[in-house]
């Protein structure tokens, strides 16, 4: 991981992004006297050991008992919390409003959760650090940069980085203490802390053990379902985001989505995003019903085992085919169990464990299940693949953006302008054509990217990506469509458009997952992935999927994932 981070840091200085908005204009005092962050009730306990001043970049939680917190760290928490509230929160949704859950719900939970407070501070510190890097890279050649980066600046950067790591380590340590407690593990603040730590990893590099994070979330959501007292539905928006992140990550990283319809106990064509989710993810919720299936289709295309979809007989008593498990009260889904049964069966020896990059791999019980499948199970894979491929293809081709439905689903107090609705339609079309391009590659793994079928679909993605209003808040959601289209793009002008879009998103957001994605695309465009070499796998080697990016990310011994959000 250190080598990946160093490589991305070097790549950052090769780009010439626009000036970073919001960095110079925001100068909230660290001594602002609103909420006294860092002094919440003792909901998250800590040990009496100190935090190393310069912790390693990828700590092991087991080896690092943590805090009381350095008083100097507490003093600056107010600054980071206000930076998160005033600068970051508006950019974490499509349309900002009084009920923005990243501001309204997260900060409400943080008032009583030190783990969440430290996760917020880690994210804010990381975002500031990355925007500073972008500002230094803007308009300076290497010589100028070296001259301007004086020793005091270096020392300041090191101190800021140390604070960031301390906040991150504290958040992880306190989170693990909550996960050790069956009651606390079911709390909304636990989900919020993991969500902010996911954002931290996206801001830092976009490369982490996201699959194990989502496996941990799956375990936690299972605990919440099994609780005798169903949790509030205030956290439904967080469950929706995890479901979306998992699906997008699965489509890129050679796996099946874990938070799918089988997990939620609904039929395969059910909604998994609640009404109004477009404001959180930028993708039409109707369209997402198909996009979530792409990772599964990829696995099927490689004759690899997949989870069994729910049959009608197993879905009795579950929500209807069109009902989302996240959009309304789902008390009937929660099956009370005796407390001793919960503790003994779910928490005994394998409670979720977070290490700052992801949850421990022993959570992934599906891996054990699929590895036990007999060879006879592969016989029906091709017919299953083509049946599900056809269903997905028809759904994508027939989908149409319904502006009135989306407007009606927006939360109270939120209104959209005509331009914003138009941008959301263009954004959803970019997703649709990227998904069509994805299915085209699955159906034609050995056809060159220069074939008209691919070129036409790439052109559609690029067209809709460039149809957004200049500086539109919808642009930040474009990374997945741009990455899928960019991986098949052979036209240099279109490559330049994708490159510029990725840089613009990175410049405005300060999220380095955009740089990680662009780095992969640059390697593909220079021929590193090869257009046809090894498509579909090679005899005697680990099987890879039909996508060119699989030769640039992942592989034997690599346990991290790239997330394109």
TrEMBL record:
GO molecular function, one term: DNA binding
Lineage of source species: Eukaryota, Fungi, Dikarya, Ascomycota, Pezizomycotina
UniProt cross-references to InterPro entries, sorted A to Z: Fun_TF, OAF3
Chain intervals with Pro residues compositional bias: 53-69
Basic and acidic residues composition-biased segments: 31-46
Superkingdom to which the source organism belongs: Eukaryota
Start and end residues of each stretch annotated as Disordered: 23-69, 308-332
Protein name: Uncharacterized protein
Residue ranges, compositional bias (Polar residues): 308-327
Protein keywords: DNA-binding, Nucleus, Transcription, Transcription regulation
């Amino acid at each position: 991981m250190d080598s990946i981070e160093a490589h991305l840091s070097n790549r950052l200085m090769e780009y010439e992004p626009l000036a970073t908005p919001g960095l110079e204009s925001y100068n909230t005092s660290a001594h602002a006297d609103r909420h006294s962050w860092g002094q919440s009730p003792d909901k998250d306990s800590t040990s009496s050991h100190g935090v190393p001043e310069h912790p390693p970049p990828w700590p092991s939680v087991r080896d690092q008992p943590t805090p009381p917190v350095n008083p100097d760290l507490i003093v600056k928490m107010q600054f980071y919390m206000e930076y998160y509230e005033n600068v970051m929160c508006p950019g974490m949704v499509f349309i900002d409003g009084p009920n923005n859950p990243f501001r309204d719900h997260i900060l409400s939970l943080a008032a009583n959760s030190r783990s969440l407070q430290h996760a917020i501070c880690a994210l804010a510190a990381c975002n500031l650090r990355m925007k500073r890097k972008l500002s230094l890279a803007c308009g300076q050649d290497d010589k100028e940069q070296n001259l301007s980066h004086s020793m005091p600046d270096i020392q300041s950067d090191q101190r800021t980085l140390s604070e960031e790591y301390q906040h991150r380590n504290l958040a992880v340590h306190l989170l693990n203490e909550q996960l050790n407690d069956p009651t606390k593990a079911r709390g909304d603040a636990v989900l919020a802390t993991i969500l902010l730590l996911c954002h931290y990893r996206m801001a830092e590099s976009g490369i982490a053990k996201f699959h194990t994070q989502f496996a941990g979330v799956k375990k936690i959501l299972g605990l919440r379902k099994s609780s005798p007292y169903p949790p509030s539905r205030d956290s439904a928006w967080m469950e929706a985001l995890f479901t979306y992140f998992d699906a997008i990550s699965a489509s890129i990283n050679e796996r099946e989505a874990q938070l799918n319809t089988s997990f939620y106990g609904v039929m395969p064509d059910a909604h998994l995003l609640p009404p109004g989710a477009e404001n959180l993810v930028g993708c039409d919720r109707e369209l997402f019903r198909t996009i979530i299936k792409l990772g599964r289709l990829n696995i099927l295309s490689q004759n690899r085992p997949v989870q069994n979809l729910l049959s009608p007989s197993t879905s009795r008593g579950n929500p209807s085919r069109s009902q989302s498990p996240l959009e309304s009260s789902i008390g009937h889904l929660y099956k009370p169990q005796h407390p001793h049964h919960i503790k003994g069966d779910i928490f005994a020896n394998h409670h979720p464990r977070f290490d700052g990059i992801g949850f421990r791999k022993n959570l992934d019980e599906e891996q054990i299940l699929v590895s036990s499948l007999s060879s006879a199970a592969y016989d029906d894979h091709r017919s299953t693949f083509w049946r599900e491929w056809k269903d997905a293809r028809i759904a994508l081709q027939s989908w149409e953006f319904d502006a009135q439905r989306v407007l009606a689903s927006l939360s109270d107090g939120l209104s959209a302008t005509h331009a914003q609705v138009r941008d959301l339609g263009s954004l959803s079309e970019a997703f649709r054509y990227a998904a069509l391009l994805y299915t085209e590659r699955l159906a034609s793994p050995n056809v060159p990217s220069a074939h008209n079928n691919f070129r036409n679909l790439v052109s559609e993605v690029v067209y809709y990506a460039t149809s957004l209003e200049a500086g539109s808040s919808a642009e930040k959601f474009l990374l997945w469509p741009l990455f899928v289209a960019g991986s098949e793009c052979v036209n240099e002008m279109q490559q330049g458009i994708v490159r510029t879009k990725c840089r613009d998103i990175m410049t405005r957001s300060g999220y380095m997952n955009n740089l990680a994605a662009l780095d992969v695309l640059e390697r593909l465009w220079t021929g590193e992935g090869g257009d046809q070499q090894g498509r579909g796998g090679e005899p005697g080697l680990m099987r890879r999927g039909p996508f060119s990016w699989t030769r640039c990310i992942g592989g034997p011994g690599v346990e991290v994932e790239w997330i394109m959000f």
